[in-house]
Design a protein that fits this description.
Helix content is 72%, strand content 0%. It has 130 residues and is an all-alpha fold. The protein starts with a helix and ends in a 9-residue tail after the last helix. 32% of the residues are buried.
Length: 130
């Protein structure tokens, strides 16, 4: 029997990874590096969570959903940086400040999410240990 809550959380992470915008006409190395990191973490933890849900009853999906929510939020802010009709460096600097703050919390959220699926996630590359 599949643990539905955890399976849903895993699929949510996979959906976020799939929908993160990459490249495009205004590709920016800084934005692309952040997006690549988000995709890697969400994809790896998403697959690990689905494997966990297939064999473990119970589990706490909240840390995984928090990570998915934060990754989606960061990706949305990245879309807003540098894509306005009238360039505004001050606005972009404010947005980058917010993005940098959210990215700095990413390791903590990733560790908490990894701990939620520890039996199948131990030593997962790109996922910091507790």
């Amino acid at each position: 029997m599949t643990n539905t809550s955890m399976d849903d959380a895993g699929r949510c992470l996979l959906s976020v990874a799939w929908n993160i915008r990459t490249g495009g006409p205004r590709a920016d190395p800084r934005s692309d590096a952040v997006r690549e990191r988000l995709q890697t973490v969400c994809r790896r933890l998403g697959h690990a969570t689905c494997r966990y849900a297939a064999v473990h009853p119970g589990g706490d999906p909240v840390p995984l959903l928090r990570l998915a929510d934060r990754a989606y939020e960061i990706d949305t802010l990245l879309l807003l940086v540098g894509t306005s009709l009238i360039p505004d460096p001050a606005r972009d600097a404010r947005r980058w400040g917010e993005i940098d703050g959210l990215v700095s919390e990413l390791d903590t959220l990733t560790s908490a999410a990894g701990a939620a699926v520890e039996p199948v996630c131990g030593g997962l590359p790109g996922v910091p240990a507790r």
